[in-house]
Amino acid sequence: MLYFAYGSNLHHFQMKRRCKDSIFLKKINLKNFRLTFRSRYRAADIEFKKNSIVPGALFEISKSDEKKLDVYEDFPILYKKYYFKYYGKKVMTYTMVKKTSFMFPTERYLRVVKRGYKDCHLDEKFLIKALKT
Fold it and tell me: Which domains does the chain have, with CATH numbers?
């Protein structure tokens, strides 16, 4: 199955440790969404915003990887699954259930996300913009 990562799961080493079968395919942009950080965990989330984009990574994951991600993402309590089409193929990602107000991420979490942006060759300006919300 195809999975779209946009937060800490962009970090290749962490993603491989969490999902042993995962394969990084390429970087892609999710259109009409924007990146933000929220909840008491101060974690990454996406929300609908016309004419905005969220850069991220497309991974191929197995069923057992998906189950591990469900646990990590506290599905269905903290995150729910969101599906979209990418060139006709179904892609799964997670989005927070409760859209609380913006919370600046912890330094540790932000370091992991920044490393992921480097691993996936994403433009950090989108991350910087999300932090100024």
Answer: 2-127 (3.10.490.10)
